[in-house]
Design a protein that fits this description.
Elements (H helix, E strand, L loop, with lengths): L15 E5 L6 E2 L2 E2 L3 H5 L1 H9 L3 E5 L16 H11 L4 E3 L5 H8 L6 E4 L13 H12 L4 E4 L10 H9 L2 E3 L1 H14 L6 E5 L8 H7 L5 E4 L4 H7 L14 H14 L2 E3 L3 E5 L8 E5 L13 E5 L1 H12 L3 E5 L12 H10 L5 E4 L2 H9 L9 E2 L3 H8 L5 H4 L6
Parallel strand pairs: 1-4, 1-7, 4-6, 5-6, 7-8, 9-10, 9-15, 10-11, 15-16, 16-17
Antiparallel strand pairs: 2-3, 12-13, 12-14
Helix pairs in contact: 5-6, 9-10, 11-12
Amino acid sequence: MALRTLEDLGDLAGKRVVVRCDLNVPLADGTITDDGRVRASLGTLNRLIGVGARVIVISHLGRPDGERKAEFSLAPVAQRLSELLGKPVAFCDETVGDAATAAAEALEDGDVLVLENLRFNSEETAKDVGVRGDFADRIAAMGEAFVSDGFGVVHRKQASVYELAGALPSAAGLLIEQELGVLERLTTEPERPYTVVLGGSKVSDKLGVIAHLLPRVDTLCIGGGMLFTFLAAQGHGVGSSLLERDQLDTVRGYLDEAAQRGVTIDLPTDVVVASGFAADAEHEVVAADAIESARFGADGIGLDIGPETAARFADAVRGSRTVFWNGPMGVFEFPAFAAGTKTVAQALTEVEGLGVVGGGDSAAAVRSLGFDDDQFGHISTGGGASLEFLEGKSLPGLEALGWSA
């Protein structure tokens, strides 16, 4: 079946429309430090405002575990949304209840209301289907239609993602349409050469993606903390670097499969090794196969790919027509160990084809390193959802909107 879209909901003028956004932004002392997800929601919200809908925005923020915690309030997000929309946005400090209902009923055509953090209510993420369903029904009672546009949560079976889609006439928003279109381009006859760059801390987080993409890609570049498990699988010492010993056999299997398929798995030939995990740690560039024989010995910890490797990865990226990148190449939060990530990001801006930043830490990295969103072909708003799609997994939030793989 095809994904239901906004057009399937008909005329929404004067109707109360509940919109599930992903406004899970990073906050520091109540200030949003990266408003990328808020900006990503604007397309759908402006479309609904433009047709005269009465918009009720719902979202989660952080992990308050079913408790009301001030540091996870959506109030700062509502304020930022008002600034970006260029119009007042009402905020209600509860998700469901008399105050929320009254606020929803007070909306006029084109108005926007943000309800408080969904996850202040334990029912949102309850394992019990009935509990989730009852919570979804309480939200649904405030609206006449539902638009799901929080791509970052479509891989979760949660009340506002799954059950709510069945409680009201429902459809995907513009962001989900866009995300799904990009991901389908990555998996269905992608333009070649096709390069995937994977980083991040743990190889176990990417096993499914590697398995699913090996038959589809030309080159797989491995960086980040996960590279050390690959090096160890080849018999190299990695000092005190992050290592998942229980994945060594799995990694060896992927290396063998890649060789059989003619896929290049490009592993670092040099790494930046430090005396410890700290921004000001002493560090040096060493050969990837000589980490323990270098200056810091077995105490050395790898915190970035080296310049030789970064240049090679960048060449692979620039020479490809399709690129998917998920996971930083090093500890980009420490300036001394951000060079690898920055080099790959710069190369991605120069791709003559489709270059995709796969959400999560990758999206945070490119923004913190000074890149603008419009320099890339696409920055996904859902790292976990993107990865699960690329693994070929079921995504409940999309299936609830009529989509099937």
